[in-house]
Specification:
By secondary structure, the protein is an all-alpha fold. It contains three helices and no strands. The two termini are 17 Å apart. 3% of the residues are buried. The model has no long low-confidence stretch (mean pLDDT 80).
């Protein structure tokens, strides 16, 4: 059971790293070029989806961290 949660934890960690790297940077860009790209490729809905997926993965990551701490405390007692 402990190994199973560790594998899920590892997968979510890698997925979270990948999603954060995929997200568009928040640096300063040319506004006119950005608006053209948003309209052309519909980036706003894609970035919104990536943001929500990142939040969901982060919540699972935190929950699994708490769960692993509880499992480790139970095993040590």
């Amino acid at each position: 059971m402990r190994t199973f949660f560790l594998l899920i934890y590892l997968c979510i960690s890698l997925m979270l790293i990948f999603l954060i790297l995929l997200k568009k940077s928040q640096g300063s860009t040319n506004v006119s070029v950005t608006n053209i790209n948003k309209n052309l490729f519909n980036i706003s809905t894609q970035s919104e989806f990536l943001n929500r997926l990142t939040i969901i993965c982060a919540c699972f990551f935190l929950l699994l961290s708490i769960l692993q701490c509880n499992i480790n405390n139970y095993i040590l007692k």
